[in-house]
């Protein structure tokens, strides 16, 4: 089983997505598990804590706008998630950062070997960098842009990794990267009509000639699905 551990202030933003469709079935089959750890639960509280005592963010050293999530609540959450396994070969910790390594299908494939994957989901201006000194982890970015938090990148990684695990998809050939696939797909009926114009399925897909269909899919994929390529 692969267990995903999400360190997040907002688990409610993740739960609806991972509790539906393929990810839901993967959990029901016992192939994956998803656990949440809210940093607020790992703040050392006084006997009668005030609001400020419950906070996990603080002003950044060196100045600047926004607030930074403190290191210790995150460190304790990671320790709670994986404990003594944290330095094991089957554990991987991900720190989301715009400056991190670009996440790809190839990277997703390498994550299949881990039994425990921890996602450290930042918010505000980020997380105190000393978390990365306390634990071995990899910096990951899901794209050349900045998001509000790490929850969306975590969902992207969970989805991408899970669909590669044997037994998750009904047919492992459904993993498009393992076969010749096209961004353009069609289903019944063969002809549809909209506003007086008829739209047809490409003839090659009706031919039954698998080599020609693969050639067509390869060409469409190379074209980026822009439809500029003419049928022969």
The N- and C-terminal alpha carbons lie at a distance of 48 Å
Report the CATH superfamily of the largest domain.
SPOUT methyltransferase, trefoil knot domain
Low-confidence stretches: none
Count of alpha and pi helical runs: 8
The 3D shape can be described as elongated
* Class of secondary structure makeup: alpha/beta
CATH topology of the largest domain: Alpha/beta knot
Largest sheet, described in full?
A: 5 strands, parallel
Number of strands: 9
CATH architecture grouping of the largest domain: 3-Layer(aba) Sandwich
CATH class of the largest domain: Alpha Beta
Instruction: Please give the radius of gyration in angstroms.
Output: 23 Å
Output the strand order for the largest sheet: 2-1-6-5-7
Q: How many domain units?
A: 2
Mean pLDDT: 89
Query: SSE order in H/E notation?
Result: EHHEHEEHEHEHEHEEH
The percent of residues in helical segments reads 25-40%
- Strand proportion: 15-25%
Description:
- With 232 residues, the chain is an alpha/beta fold.
- The chain contains 8 helices and 9 strands.
- The radius of gyration is 23 Å and the shape is elongated.
Distinctive features:
232 residues; 19% strand; Alpha/beta knot; elongated; 5-stranded parallel sheet; 28% helix
Task: Give the gist of this structure.
With 232 residues, this protein is α/β, with parallel strands linked by helices. The chain folds into 2 domains: 2-174, SPOUT methyltransferase, trefoil knot domain (Alpha/beta knot, 3-Layer(aba) Sandwich); 180-223. The protein contains 8 helices and 9 strands.
